[in-house]
Write a structure and sequence with these properties.
The complex is a heterodimer. In chain A, helix 2 runs parallel beside helix 3 and helix 6 crosses helix 7. Chain A has two domains: 117 residues, Response regulator (Rossmann fold, 3-Layer(aba) Sandwich); 95 residues, Arc Repressor Mutant, subunit A. Chain A is elongated. Chain A is built from eight helices and twelve strands. By secondary structure, chain A is of the alpha/beta class. The longest helix of chain A has 14 residues. The mean pLDDT of chain A is 86. Chain B is α+β, with helices and mostly antiparallel strands. Chain B folds into four domains: 57 residues; 122 residues, Beta-Lactamase (2-Layer Sandwich), CATH 3.30.450; 96 residues, Helix Hairpins; 157 residues, Heat Shock Protein 90 (2-Layer Sandwich). Chain B has nine helices and twelve strands. Chain B has a five-stranded antiparallel sheet with strand order 2-1-5-4-3. In chain B, strands 7-9-10-12-11 form a five-stranded mixed sheet. In chain B, strands 6-8 form a two-stranded antiparallel sheet. Chain B is elongated, with a radius of gyration of 50 Å. The chains are: A alpha/beta, B alpha+beta. At the A-B interface, helix 4 and helix 8 of A face helix 6, helix 7 and helix 8 of B.
């Protein structure tokens, strides 16, 4: 995955680039808005990570300019303004995801990978992971051809996980995409939902599909 | 006051310079110098009086009085002028009518009996008391009959037939001062001139009377008005000065002071009452701010100390990678908790300042309640509680969906935390949490009822403050900000957070103003 990080805080940018390189991605850096826009215009990137407040040209303007030129590279906005309405503004300006500072790298990595992969998009009607099948049209879920009855919310949770097989999905990503909440509940309510789902799809099978990734989130994967 | 203060020292400096010169020139001028200080004291005293007067003259009350006064005086003057002018016109009209009638009568006499008859008629009329003025002359201007001295008339009067004002003297009073008259001159067939007129003295006297009355009344209005203005301005000024004095004390830091209220219910009183209300609010806010910063300092120091101690401990005692890893993970966890606390604090601050008010839409609160119920149901179940949702009827409110969800989730979170604790201590029967959205008059109430220990009525106000955690909940995880945030969000939406007794347990109620159900847009 090729990334462009537009961030004026030298330390934060270096830390991010190093962390992305460690997990095997290519990361370019731009220190101000104009440089970032120039890079984004002629480079081939899978994802842009854009700080909201930048010298010379702010993050939202960069994304706006790119979108007006028909460049649809997914962009993730980083911002110190972590309030509800700021997020809405960021997404309205053409950003694809929004992460308030301070963030954990695992959260950023998970979101970036989902954004990069989404470009190809897994939009088929039936999702398959191992012997687990989810039919998005008829809302039927089967494992080893045996039907599993899920509640609507559980279905959407599984659907989101299966849309990103082999990718880490964080708790906040689930909250945002399945429940449409952008705040952080005090307790980890998501864990309980996951364990319920897990008991329905993995119980009695030798091969667990829904895995917990420590310190990051969850992943559905056929580990065979 | 300041202007005078600034000028006076300079004057005394100048006088000091003069003094020096004079002392050099006249050795014996010392007595004069000795006499100077009292004089400058008088000047200062006078200056103060002038300054006080200036202040009085600058007051709004005095300026208003002055404006009213001017307007009144102008009205009065205008009214009197109109009256005078009208009277004058009336008298003039009367005179012309009389004169016209006389001229008609005399012309008739002339037509009937020629010059002799008219002269006779004129002679007869002049003898009547209060007679008009008559003069009959030949074409050359020689006096034929009448009671007016032809030479006393203004020059050229007889040459122009028609109306005119002129000076005149009667025939029988040669040395008396000239009178004024309104006359009509007619040329009779045969070249004679007939002049008939009335004296204008009556008209002028009346006009003078009105004028004098006008002058006096305007003068009285002005004098009384200025005196009244002074009186009103002084009264207002005394009260405003008292208010200014108090305001100054308050500015110097004594927020307990309040402005004096006279109890007359006038605009100054209303102003004072409102300012006092404002001060009350400011004092409460200042108090809250102080308490919050104290609490923040205390409540953030605790986790930071813990963080520091754990790192130190790891540095000292950890021997292998696993132990280091565990220490670092707990450090990250603790930092995340701190960040959450800060986020909550920021959110409360933003909700309280009303910044998030732009992003409000109308939505069905019942939907929010169902959503939150759905989110928390497995967690409650996990803790041995049943979570029920009663939200079927649409309950429309206007606000930020996300924030109201957050407030509600805080309440549910609390309910589960304390409800579960109660279950552990109770006799095993499953406790229930009830989530409800209902309409209550003009309000929409979203309530969360639990069967936990509840909150004593005396503590219900306190728990809404930031970082306040009651003794029985100290052992539970949490920041002490959940209820504060819910309350701030309710306030932001023009509602309130009410804590009630559930016998046993607690009911947290978010009461919001109801809005009309929006008409669905017609489907195109």
């Amino acid at each position: 995955m090729r990334l462009l990080i537009i961030e004026d805080d030298r330390d934060a940018a270096d830390y991010l680039a190093k962390a992305f390189r460690e997990v095997g991605h290519i990361a370019d850096l731009a220190a101000d808005g104009e440089e970032g826009l120039a890079h984004a215009l002629d480079g081939q990137y899978d994802v842009l990570i854009v700080d909201r407040m930048l010298p010379k040209l702010d993050g939202l303007s960069i994304i706006g300019t790119l979108r007006s030129k028909g460049i649809e590279t997914p962009a993730l906005i980083l911002s110190a303004l972590g309030q509800v309405d700021d997020r809405v503004k960021g997404l309205r300006a053409g950003g694809d995801d929004y992460l308030p500072k301070p963030y954990s790298f695992s959260e950023l990595l998970a979101r970036t990978e989902v954004l990069a992969r989404r470009h190809g998009g897994r939009e088929e009607m039936v999702y398959r992971v191992g012997d687990l099948e989810l039919d998005r049209l008829s809302h039927r879920v089967t494992r080893a051809s045996e039907e599993i009855v899920l509640q609507p919310r559980e279905f959407r949770l599984l659907e989101y996980l299966m849309k990103h097989p082999g990718q880490v999905v964080t708790r906040t990503m689930l909250l945002e995409n399945v429940w449409d909440y952008h705040f952080d509940p005090q307790t980890n309510v998501i864990d309980v939902h996951i364990s319920r789902l897990r008991s329905k799809i993995d119980k009695g099978f030798a091969q667990p599909l829904l895995q917990t990734v420590r310190g990051a989130g969850y992943m559905i994967r056929d580990s065979k | 006051m300041t202007a005078n203060d600034a000028i006076l020292p300079r004057e005394s400096e100048a006088s000091a310079g003069q003094r020096l010169d004079r002392a050099r020139a006249h050795e014996d001028a010392r007595s004069q110098i000795a006499a100077r200080p009292p004089q400058s004291w008088f000047a200062r005293k006078g200056g103060e009086r002038m300054a006080a007067l200036g202040k009085l003259l600058r007051t709004t009350a005095f300026k208003l009085t002055l404006v009213y006064l001017t307007v009144f005086a102008l009205f009065a003057a205008f009214l009197l002028a109109y009256f005078a002018w009208n009277t004058r016109r009336l008298i003039t009209e009367q005179i012309t009518e009389t004169v016209d009638a006389e001229v008609q009568g005399l012309s008739e006499q002339y037509r009937l009996g020629g010059i002799r008859r008219i002269a006779f008629a004129i002679e007869g009329r002049t003898r009547r008391p209060g007679s008009s003025l008559y003069l009959l002359t030949t074409a050359a201007g020689e006096d034929v009959a009448g009671n007016v001295n032809v030479r006393s008339l203004a020059i050229g009067i007889l040459d122009h037939p028609g109306w005119a004002e002129t000076v005149y003297r009667r025939v029988d009073e040669q040395d008396a001062p000239e009178h004024h008259a309104l006359v009509r001159v007619d040329q009779l067939p045969g070249g004679f001139y007939l002049l008939v007129g009335r004296d204008l003295e009556e008209r002028e006297r009346l006009f003078d009377v009105v004028l004098a009355a006008g002058r006096w009344s305007v003068a009285i209005v002005v004098v009384l008005g200025i005196a009244g203005g002074f009186f009103v301005a002084r009264r207002v000024l005394t009260r405003v000065d008292a208010m200014t004095e108090t305001a100054r004390t308050i500015m110097h830091g004594d927020l307990h002071e309040r402005l004096p209220v006279a109890g007359t219910g006038d605009e100054l009183d209303r102003l004072a009452v409102n300012l006092n209300a404002m001060l009350e609010r400011i004092e409460a806010l200042m108090h809250g701010l102080k308490e919050v910063s104290d609490n923040i300092a205390h409540d953030l120091k605790t986790p930071l100390t813990r963080l520091r101690n754990r790192s130190e401990e790891a540095l000292r005692a950890a021997g292998n990678e696993t132990q280091y890893r565990a220490a670092l993970e707990s450090t990250i966890e603790e930092s995340d908790a701190l960040i959450r606390t800060f986020n909550a604090l920021l959110m409360i601050a933003r909700a309280e300042s009303g910044q998030a008010r732009d992003d409000m839409t109308a939505f069905d609160a019942a939907e929010i309640v169902r959503g939150i119920g759905d989110l928390y149901e497995p967690l409650a179940d996990d803790k041995g509680l049943t979570l029920k949702v009663e939200a079927t009827a649409p309950t429309w409110v206007r606000g930020n969906r996300e924030l109201i969800s957050l407030a509600l989730s805080n309440l549910v979170d609390n309910a589960i935390k304390y409800g579960a604790a109660a279950v552990a201590g109770a006799n095993g029967q499953p406790a229930a949490i009830l989530l409800k959205a209902a309409e209550q008059g003009d309000r929409i109430v979203l309530s969360v009822a639990d069967g936990g220990p509840g909150i004593a009525p005396s503590d219900r106000g306190r728990v809404l403050e930031r970082f306040v955690r009651l003794e029985q909940s100290r052992s539970e995880p949490g920041s002490g900000l959940g209820l504060s945030l819910a309350a701030a969000i309710a306030h932001l939406h023009g509602g309130e957070l009410i804590l009630e007794d559930n016998h046993p347990g607690l009911v947290g109620v978010i009461a919001l103003p109801r809005v009309a159900v929006p008409v669905p847009a017609p489907v195109a």
